[in-house]
Write a structure and sequence with these properties.
Blueprint lengths: L1 E5 L3 H13 L3 E5 L2 H10 L4 E5 L7 H10 L6 E5 L4 H9 L4 E4 L4 H15 L7 E3 L2 E4 L4 E4 L2 E3 L3 H12 L7 H8 L10 H13 L5 E3 L3 E3 L3
Parallel strand pairs: 1-2, 1-3, 3-4, 4-5
Antiparallel strand pairs: 6-7, 7-8, 8-9, 10-11
Helix pairs in contact: 2-3, 6-8
The structure holds calcium ion (CA).
The site of calcium ion (CA) has 5 residues, from loops.
């Protein structure tokens, strides 16, 4: 899952980027509202974490502009302590949730998982398709009840395929969700991850549709 983080405080931005990457998200970090506005017009993100007090364009304006273009991505705003007006204005401008600084990383990750779950039209925290179960919070995958050891990118890829079970995902859809700007994939990276997932889960569980993409059957 690819997250756009917009935060002008260098220490906080750096800490959140590292922490969210450790939680398995692909993170792109921008430091002003204008860059965020441009990125949201040209790239696909699964979720936006947005500071409101930003240089060049406020977070509120960037959010309003995204919503007025019809962008429906889940948005979590970061607000200063005691800025009750900010919370209300942020929610009314189209944010889905907010978190007050100082940010607790575990809470941020949990709220992000909840928002992603809802935006995928799902309420249950664990994804189950056939004999495969994936728990994003515990970072655990089981096959027929037995734990399966997956590398970070394999886990993210499997989660994406399970979220879309029964639907074909194209290579570019998968790559957009799995990789940020700093980690552009090798041309065959996706095939390698798919190969590993098939070895660990059984080859029949991920279908290749030549020239179209990949799918986990429901
Ligand atoms: Ca700020």
């Amino acid at each position: 899952m690819r997250i756009l983080l917009v935060e002008d405080d260098p220490l906080l931005g750096d800490g959140l980027t590292i922490g969210l990457r450790q939680s398995g998200f692909a993170v792109d970090w921008l430091k002003d509202g204008h860059s965020a506005d441009l990125a949201l017009q040209s790239e696909h993100f699964d979720l936006l974490v947005l500071d409101l007090g930003l240089p060049k364009m406020t977070g509120m304006e960037a959010l309003q502009r995204a919503r007025s273009r019809g962008n429906t991505l889940p948005v979590l705003v970061l607000t200063a302590r005691d800025a009750t007006g900010d919370k209300i204005a942020g929610l009314d401008a189209g944010a889905d949730d907010y978190l007050v600084k100082p940010i607790d990383l575990d809470e941020l990750s949990a709220r992000i998982r909840a928002l992603l779950r809802r935006s995928a039209g799902r309420a249950a925290p664990v994804l189950s398709v056939g004999q495969i179960s994936l728990d994003p919070a515990a970072h655990l995958v089981t096959l027929e009840g037995k734990p399966v050891d997956l590398a970070g990118r394999e886990f993210a890829l499997l989660q994406l395929l399970l979220e879309n079970a029964g639907r074909v995902l194209s290579r570019s859809q998968i790559e957009q969700s799995l990789y940020g700007w700093r980690d552009e994939p090798d041309s065959n990276a996706l095939e390698v991850h798919i190969h590993h997932l098939r070895k660990k889960l059984g080859s029949e569980r991920i279908r290749t549709l030549r020239g179209v993409g990949y799918m986990v059957p429901k």
